[in-house]
Write a structure and sequence with these properties.
Shape of chain A: globular
Structural class of chain A: alpha/beta
Number of helices of chain A: 11
Oligomer: homodimer
Strand content of chain A: 15-25%
Radius of gyration of chain A: 20 Å
Helix content of chain A: 40-55%
Number of strands of chain A: 17
Distance between the termini of chain A: 28 Å
Largest interface: A-B, 54 and 54 residues
Strand order of the largest sheet of chain A: 6-5-4-7-10-16-17
Low-confidence stretches of chain A: none
Order of helices and strands of chain A: EEEHHHHHEHHEHEHEEEHEEEEEEEEH
Chain lengths: ~350, ~350
């Protein structure tokens, strides 16, 4: 089973084949990564991006390291540290790379350890696809027959390496012949909607309409949209949700007009240690991203900017969470705690069966 | 008295001197318009833009016509029709040009009629400046000491030819040493905030911060902004307000966080014949404006777009209207009707004194 747009392919013993996302949508350029150096360059330059996809790339790059540099523990530890440091704010990258290192060190040094790393990378990719598919299958029935939905940023196969989260739900509802159109915001400042989501929707044959972020409230007010579905970067214990900046504004407009507002996110995105949205740290990004794009500048030089990467949507504006274990409805604190506890029990049982 | 940024200067008997707004902020290029042909090209190419400024340009271009082509009634009627047709949706352009024609035809053909047209153009510009100044003086006290405000699009001297509406209030509050910072949205798709408002604020020495439209709700939620002030394109009898797309989203966020939301607009913007927002016709613009800018494309070719130029903010989200006759507070239907009636009485009295 392969992702609909194959942002990554694992070539065991050879390298990693990735789609260069910085060239989309103008060109579909694939790169063969066969060195740690080259893979880290691709991560740093955002040729691969999206938290779940970065996790897969991290696991695969550690396999590349073993093939390129040998499977000695010191070599792999150095490589894992280097990979994780390439984008320190991307939690999945460090977490999945560290897991890959543990898996490798349980096997004796040599060809078996290298083979284990490649098998692990393939397994990480396969699990992502399965989790996205399960989440999408739970979410698709929320989309009514003939429905149009609005989404924000890119939550597709390009971001997860699998099938997508919010865009996975949209794909599944389209495959079920219920969804008839997807509206996508441009998503300033980095334009992931205009560049990536529109490209994925076109590839999937889904009727798509692009709008400036400014037009989202007017679109929702017009009655054209039956649901808003977005992803998440971190969900607090009470359901407050950090996601790509602009999400909160969509939630306010949806609430005003009685349009359901869904968050599609895997359980790894829930953070029970964070009690509420005010405790979620928000990354601020460079002023140069605002007032221009791709080297073109629209604004007087040296202008000050306000450029948070994320905003927080309060729990009361969210209709439901779509996860790989089903749909969570209010009251969210209880639903989240119950679901995470069930997941932990199952994970413990699976671990006991393996050992 | 001259506009702070002088988007237009009337040169009686010679022509019109305008700032080419399409070259901002990279270059401050002034053009001397001495033919009807040249003036219409500048209007069509958006070198001059903003409804009130277009009215002034229309009146001045009819004076250019008399100087260039002679003041015969037929010549002026043809010129007025051509000017008005250059941007048919801009109400002020046609209205003020037609008024200029009436003024001219009350004077015998010849040098006196031509001189009358130049004097009329100067008077139109002076009246705009006075109306903007009055509106700004009423609005400035609404801004508290040390306050930061958020605005949208461009409502400055560049748009009115005078002192500005919402940006006029901001200028006046800054001159009163109360306003400390102005936040400006980029205002996709045409980026009037990034290109024009940031330029005007820098020229005025006002501390300014640019944000992506997506970040406005986060900014308002952060408690940094003490008021939102925007302009208007048409205000219905009940107070529902059409303005640059994106305004409605700002109003929803302001209401959620208890931040005052002000509309600054001259009384000519109020349309008592339109009962409510649903009756306001909304202009939709070209798909090519979305997914790119200035020849650069970010989106797959041929993408469908949703691109309304305006949205409608419902009256219940508006704290007050700032006009040249003072501040209008809820209930708005009564306040608007009372203010327009008083304006009509004064206008009738002024006309009676002249005749």
């Amino acid at each position: 089973v392969e992702s609909p747009v194959a942002p990554i392919r694992i070539l065991p013993g050879l390298g990693i084949d990735v789609l260069d996302q910085t060239r989309l949508p103008q060109a579909e350029v694939r790169l063969r990564l066969t060195t740690v150096e080259g893979a880290c360059e691709s991560i740093a330059a955002l040729r691969v991006r999206g938290a779940p996809l970065l996790g897969i790339v991290g696991a695969a790059t550690l396999a590349v390291a073993a093939t390129e540099l040998g499977s000695a523990e010191r070599v792999l530890r150095d490589a894992a540290a280097r990979i994780s440091a390439t984008r320190p704010t991307a939690v999945d990258l460090g977490k999945v790379t560290t897991q890959a290192l543990s898996v490798a060190l349980a096997v004796p040094e040599g060809p078996a350890r290298t083979a284990r790393l490649w098998a692990n990378a393939e397994a990480v990719l396969a699990r992502q696809f399965e989790a996205d598919r399960a989440l999408s299958a739970f979410g698709a029935p929320l989309i009514g027959a003939g429905a149009a939905v609005l989404t924000h940023c890119n939550t597709g196969a390009l971001a997860t390496g699998g099938y997508g989260t919010a865009l996975g739900v949209i794909r599944a509802a389209f495959e079920d012949r219920r969804l008839v159109r997807c509206y996508a915001t441009e998503t300033r400042p980095l334009l992931q909607g205009a560049r990536l989501t529109m490209w994925e929707l076109a590839r999937a044959g889904i009727a798509a309409t692009l709008l400036p972020d400014t037009a989202a409230a007017a679109l929702i007010a017009s009655g054209t949209v039956d649901a808003v579905i977005v992803g998440a970067d971190r969900i607090a214990a009470n359901g407050d949700t950090a996601n790509k900046v602009g999400t909160y504004g969509l939630a306010l407009a949806a609430a005003r007009h009685g349009v359901p507002f869904y968050i599609a996110a895997p359980l790894t995105t829930f953070d029970p240690a964070t009690r509420h949205g005010a405790a979620i740290p928000i990354e601020f990004r460079a002023a140069s991203e605002v007032g221009g794009f791709a080297g073109q500048r629209w604004t007087p030089d040296g202008a000050d900017s306000y450029n948070p990467a994320f905003d927080v949507t309060p729990t009361d504006l969210i209709t439901a969470f779509i996860t790989e274990r089903g749909i969570l409805r209010p009251p969210f604190s209880a639903a989240i705690a119950r679901t995470l506890a069930a997941e932990a029990v199952d994970a413990g049982r699976a671990a006991a069966e393996v050992s």
